[in-house]
Design a protein that fits this description.
This protein has about 350 residues and is of the alpha+beta class. It has three domains: about 1-35 and about 215-280; about 60-215, no CATH class; about 290-335, 2-Layer Sandwich (Herpes Virus-1), CATH 3.30.40. Helix content is about 35%, strand content about 30%. The protein has helices at about 5-35, 45-50, 155-165, 215-285, 315-320; strands at about 55-70, 75, 85-100, 105-115, 120-125, 125-130, 140, 145-150, 165-180, 185-195, 200, 210-215, 300-305, 310, 335. The strands form three sheets. The chain has a five-stranded mixed beta barrel. Strands 2, 3, 4, 8 and 9 form a five-stranded antiparallel beta sheet that branches. The chain has a three-stranded antiparallel beta sheet with strand order 14-13-15. The structure holds zinc ion (ZN) (2 copies). One zinc ion binds near residues 309, 324, 326, 327 and 329. This is RING-type E3 ubiquitin transferase.
């Protein structure tokens, strides 16, 4: 129990530190993989290039082309002029929630999320490469077509209810995002020739990140580098906090150990002086009324307060805690009687 605050702080700090280290390495590995991925132009020679590789597969490459639907595109729900190949419809509820600590804080939760996907390809110079399993992408950049927030006007009953329930709705946000046709995007993943001979870009089998982004490779690398640097700073900050907390725990441990040691030393000294005092007294011949009324062996050593009777030895006084054996009055406190 002595270290509970420090332990909780250190645990929380360690969790954040671990998450930051994980993100730092995730960015670092992604950068290394992207830097090692050859950039290939989409052109008529590409099929031939892929065909020369074992299993007609290039594990990790980057290509860039224009999004083109294979079939009918999806039309936006909010703007009929916009068409695309992937549509995300999300309804989010914003609430103010009472935390376990008793504070009210904003939070949000997704009520509904729907993805609509059409088969599509990346096209350049009339050559198309189909993109498979686009929703599995680690980064999938889409345009925000609509984003509306509908605030809730709470009634008196809602206020009362929220007071007891600990949750009050602030409003509902509905968002529509689309990967529009005609957008130029960079695809980083595995390039493979299908059974029909057509090229496909799919999630890589080497655990590398799958990207479908409107950034060019250089911008993507710059962004990842920036993010890597931020996580590095966070790692240093939370790492330093961990060191400080660890230092505090060690210091507290040493302090408590020293206090215990000091108390033990003091107790030993008292015990020694007590023995010495007794030895001196026992050497003298004591008559009956100088002996402890309970054991009749040791000298009377303790004064009982408030009655003031000196009638017990230290050993017996340890067992007798409630009433004075002479006058039966309550014992509030005992002290060594040095006057004997
Ligand atoms: Zn005694
Ligand atoms: Zn008494």
């Amino acid at each position: 129990m002595d270290y509970i605050a420090e332990t909780i702080a250190l645990s929380i700090d360690s969790l954040i530190l671990a998450a930051c280290i994980k993100q730092f390495y995730k960015n670092k590995n992604a950068m290394a993989m992207i830097q090692g991925a050859p950039y290939l132009d989409i052109n008529k020679d590409l099929k031939e290039i892929v065909g020369t590789h074992p299993e007609k597969k290039l594990t990790y490459v980057s290509i860039r082309g224009t999004v083109k639907p294979l079939g009918n595109p999806i039309f936006s729900n909010t703007n009929p002029n916009v068409k695309g190949v992937i549509q995300l419809l999300r309804i989010k509820e914003h609430v103010i929630q009472r935390s376990t600590a008793g504070f009210w804080a904003d939070s949000e939760r997704v009520i509904q999320e729907v993805h609509n996907v059409m088969p599509f390809a990346l096209e350049n110079k009339g050559i198309q490469i189909e993109v498979c399993d686009a929703l599995a992408a680690d980064v999938l950049d889409m345009d925000v077509i609509a984003d509306n927030f509908q605030p809730t006007v709470p009634s008196v009953i809602d206020h009362i209810w929220s007071f007891f329930a600990g949750v009050r709705q602030r409003g509902v946000q509905s968002t529509e995002k689309m990967l529009r046709t005609g957008t130029v995007i960079t695809g980083i993943g595995e390039l493979v020739a299908g059974k029909d001979g057509n090229l496909k870009l799919q999630p890589p089998s080497n655990d590398g990140p799958f990207y479908l982004t409107n950034m060019r490779v250089t911008s993507l690398l710059k962004k990842l580098d920036g993010s890597k640097r931020n996580y590095k700073i966070l790692c240093i900050v939370f790492g330093s906090i961990a060191v400080v907390l660890g230092g505090l725990i060690v210091r507290k441990y040493l302090r408590i150990r020293k206090e215990k040691g000091d108390a033990e030393k003091q107790r030993m000294q008292l015990e020694l002086s007590r023995r010495e005092r007794r030895r001196r007294i026992r050497d003298e011949d004591l008559d009956e009324n100088q002996l402890c009324v309970v054991c009749k062996t040791n000298p009377k050593e303790m004064i009982l307060i408030p009655c003031g009777h000196v009638c017990l030895c230290e050993d017996c006084s340890a067992d007798i805690t409630e009433n004075c054996p002479i006058c039966r009055s309550e014992i509030n406190y005992k002290h060594v009687a040095y006057g004997i």
